[in-house]
Amino acid sequence: MDELAFADASTLAAKIRAKDISSVELLAHYVARMGRYNPEINAIVVTQLDKAQARAQAADAALARGESWGPLHGVPMTVKESYDIEGLATTWGDPKLRNNIATADAVACQRLQGAGAVIFGKTNVPINLADFQSYNEVYGATGNPHNLARTPGGSSGGSAAALAAGLSALEMGSDIGGSIRNPAHYCGVFGHKPTWGVLPMRGHALPGSLAPTDISVIGPLARSAEDLALVLAIVGGADDLHLPGWKLELPMPAQKSLQDYKVAVWADDGLAPVDQSVKDRVLLVAKMVEDAGGRVDYGARPDFSAARSHQLYTNLLHSAMSTRQSDEVFASNLARRQQLAADDHSALAQVTRASSLFYREWHAFNEARTRLRWAWHEFFKDYDLLLTPACVTPAFPHDQNPQLSQRTLVVNNESRPYFEQTFWAGLTGVSYLPSTIVPTGLDPQGLPIGVQIVGREMGDLGTIEFARKIAALNGGFVAPQRYAS
Q: How much is the pLDDT for 346?
């Protein structure tokens, strides 16, 4: 196996500091792999190789002088296409934005580069970051490195695919409906959806937008849990508006080993039935805790109904996503809403109403969501973590049917609605909770399966550390055989 390509960013940074390899050599290694493998995967869709080469040379020169730029000194990485990088287009997969050339780097990218990273490209997304797959008219479709006929997930699908195929050392994605978590699960890498608001969003937005979007967060994907924690330390904290007044200090987990944990398990739900192959992995991680002497509760739930939580998520998600719609689409939704019968509670009617909420309605949903947040707060007084599926199935075959309502997934040999899988992302996303995906190896089809680890708000380091402990036992990331050499 190509050990260099599949090492995590922390290991590669240590190799550069020890002068076992130069930044220029490591960048060349990834660029060579990109030239060899990326044409069929289509994960990396934009590059700035001349700029990256110059920065790698500068990193090596600085190291020779005894200077360190930070914990990612000289490490080549990529970021999701939706991040602004000065001089590159930020399209969000929309052909109308082909000429949207960024004039500055996103804050997250500034901080990563401030810590020494060498950003050499951007990775693929679905249009408007609004699908569980990653294809668009600008850049085409991305395949899953474990099986090119299947999706790598979305919307950070290119991010996860690039990491899984050993084309990049580290990635930054974003998540509003599982967009970090489902690609991490489908491609067998680590991913972390942070507590809402702890990583600055500026520069990850459609043109003209400065206000952060409800539920939406940015966060890392990586080949180790250690890298997830490293990125949180680098990127996390206030943006310039609040920087003089507050500092992020996420609490460190107190547990020393798996026997110290009290874990709840939510492995399946009638609102979004989970394929047995995925459910078994959730139960496997739970058993690892039990076998270590920890406590596991399979029936514990926060004090609200799953249906109520999902209703609130659906309304707040579509309200937030409506900000990405054109004026024409929003006007159409508003007109359609005015024609709805009061007793029409169909899925289309719910989405139509949610996409055209009045502020008074949104505020009522937000008030109800805040009550969910407090219910979770009480729940996590009794439990350290919650284990759930990330998605309802492993990676599914590409499906570009423009009629989204006609798409389905096969769960336990039964056809289920495509968007039903948002339940597991929304369960934690609507309440701003941190969630980490830990890979658990491949299923009999050779497809990865991840498990979602959920913690209390601001408990990010706790979910990441638990993922690290699990990976230390189960091996963590597994390289796809097709790209291992």
A: 80
